[in-house]
Amino acid sequence: MTMEFTRPSHRLPRRRGSRIPAEPGKPYFIEKGLGDRAHLFTDLVTVYAGGEQTENTFNFFTVEGPEGDVIPAHVHSDTYEVFYITDGAVRLFVEDVEGQQYERLLRAGDFGFVPKNCPHAYRIERHHSRVVGVAAGPGGTFERFFENLGVPTEELGLPSEPYVPGPHQFATVPQRYDVRFLPEHQWRTGS
């Protein structure tokens, strides 16, 4: 989203046109959809609060998208992540630290929790689905990952064409944000 906030000592330049104030401890308000936006895969990600505003304790974002493919499996070594579905349906895939895999179809009002060190992925099952995400942990926050792997946008809607990052981007950008992709990971849950 706007800056890298994973570690307090690593800062990227502030995103031009951001509606999110850079100063922690300052109240602010953002109208629906007008946070910092990025297109990634077929989705629109909107960040409303990040590490800079929360002293690297949590972030708050939404992901909206059409019915589609599974987002690549990945893991956060220091970050806990929650999925709260406000619209549509999203299938969440999670593997615990013992290797037990779980799969759950989450509908509007449903909640999913992914502990740190647990591989996970999701697939949007219905058009116009929306996930509210929160991530927190001792490693900081990863909200700037979306715009650094994807494409920052001022558009309010979904991308007209999917944006799939090149292999070199998957190999470099995620390392700065406590995101490690697992390209060989297999889900054995059946869907």
TrEMBL record:
Top-level division of the source organism's lineage: Bacteria
Ranges of Basic residues composition bias in the record: 8-18
Record Pfam families: Cupin_2
TM segment ranges: none
Region spans: Disordered: 1-24
CDD domains, per the entry: cupin_QDO_N_C
InterPro entries membership: Cupin_2, QDO-like, RmlC-like_jellyroll, RmlC_Cupin_sf
All copies of domain Cupin type-2, residue ranges: 66-124
PANTHER family in UniProt: PUTATIVE (AFU_ORTHOLOGUE AFUA_8G07350)-RELATED
Protein name from the UniProt record: Cupin type-2 domain-containing protein
Organism from which the protein derives: Streptomyces cirratus
